[in-house]
Amino acid sequence: MSHDHDHTHELPAPAPMTPDDAGSQALAEALHSSFAIVKVVMGLMVLAFFSSGFFTVGPQEKAVILRFGRPVGEGEKILLNSGWHWSYPYPIDEVVKIPITEIQKVNSTVGWYATTAEQELSGEELPAGVSLNPAVDGYAITADRNIIHTRATLYYHIENPIHFVFDFESASNTVQNALNNALLYTAAHFNVDDVLTRDVAGFRDAVLQRVSDLTEQEQIGIVIDQCEVQSIPPRQLQDVFSQVTSARENRNKILNDARSYENQVLSQAGAQASSVTNAAAADRARYVQSITAEAKRFSDLLPKYESNPSLFAQVTLVQAMGPILTNVQDKIFLPQRADGKPRELRLMLNREPPKPQAAPSNP
Questions:
Q1: Is residue 220 packed enough to be buried (19+ CB in 10 Å), middle (13-18) or exposed (0-12)?
Q2: Cα 358–Cα 359–Cα 363 angle in degrees, nearest 5
């Protein structure tokens, strides 16, 4: 009885598997494997996504992280120094690198005739044509109302990256506009001869000063290192300007030769005047010295004369007559008479020489 009861509670045997159930199980296993692969791939993609946020800043650079267009940080903390850094990848963050010591270059876009960089590198130029075409050819007008072609190249480096990046939509274009303004403005304050020949350095310095003033007013955050300016006359008038330049050079040569001759003559005249002046000064010194010695000698003799005039006169007479009578053949001395009366002296000057006596004749 109880055996029958236990038999009634036994589980039924599983039904045999059909082909549809085996396919479902295989599909489920395949999906499970695919999901596992997808998870791994997604994990790798997320890891690669965040790893792509690492970046380096060079030793001559600064960097700024823009998060949805706004800088991350405040003040000086906005700027990232050289080294490794991390930010959210694009489009969340954007990294802007700023070369702070690298020399930047900008060229003017006004004042020069139509040409291309390839033509300038090859040395090829388009024909000048009969006249200047204002639609394509740039030019500048000088203070004396002449037309010239002029262009400039400006070299600068960034001193304040924050101003340079955030205060301007395109700071390099602002620098270029300042250079264009300076070129045309300065040309309008110089005569054509000064721009082309006589004061080329002054014109360049004036352009540089104008660019410096404009960039300082705008507070672009740059430091200007150098400015190169090139100016030429219109190509249609090149021959005329060459003739004028040649005439000016000849004029300058003649003036220089004249100044050289003038300096030579003045130098010779100065040397001669100096020689005459020195000779006169030497003669004057000797004459004054001689007169001074004579005056001293007479001053020294005065006490002797005052003490005994007669003796002084005799001594002086003897001293004076000594040199005189040295080579005299006949000497006559007339002493003073006792009575003080003068003596009379008669000399026969043209006496005839004695005649030789005739020899006695022998008988």
A1: buried
A2: 125
Give me the DSSP letters along 138-196.
Answer: --EE-TTS-EEEEEEEEEEEES-HHHHHHS-S-HHHHHHHHHHHHHHHHHTTS-HHIII
Maximum CA extent, the chain = 247
* Residue pointed to by tokens 């005249």: 269
Predicted confidence (pLDDT) at residue 69 exceeds the cutoff of 90: no
Distance of CA 254 to the CA centre of its chain: 29
DSSP-derived secondary structure for 98-109: EESSSPEEEE--
Task: Please check whether residue 56 is in contact with residue 63, taking contact to mean a CB–CB distance below 8 angstroms.
Answer: no
| 332's tokens | 């006559």
The length of the chain, given as a count of residues: 363
For residue 225, the one-letter residue type is: D
- Determine the straight-line distance between the first and last CA of the chain, rounded to whole angstroms: 247
Instruction: Give percent of the chain above pLDDT 70.
Output: 78
300-323, pLDDT tens digit by residue?
888 888 888 888 887 887 777 777
Predicted structure pTM score? 0.52
Taking the domains of the chain in order of start, what are their residue ranges? 54-98, 104-115+135-233, 237-275
CA distance 179 to 165: 19
Nearby residues of 114 by Cβ (< 8 Å), 6 or more positions away = 126, 133, 136, 137, 138
Which secondary-structure segment (H or E) carries 57? strand 54-57
Give the residue ranges of DSSP H helices in the chain. Answer: 2-8, 19-51, 117-122, 161-166, 171-187, 192-193, 200-218, 238-307, 309-325
| CATH number 3.30.479.30 given to 104-115+135-233 | yes
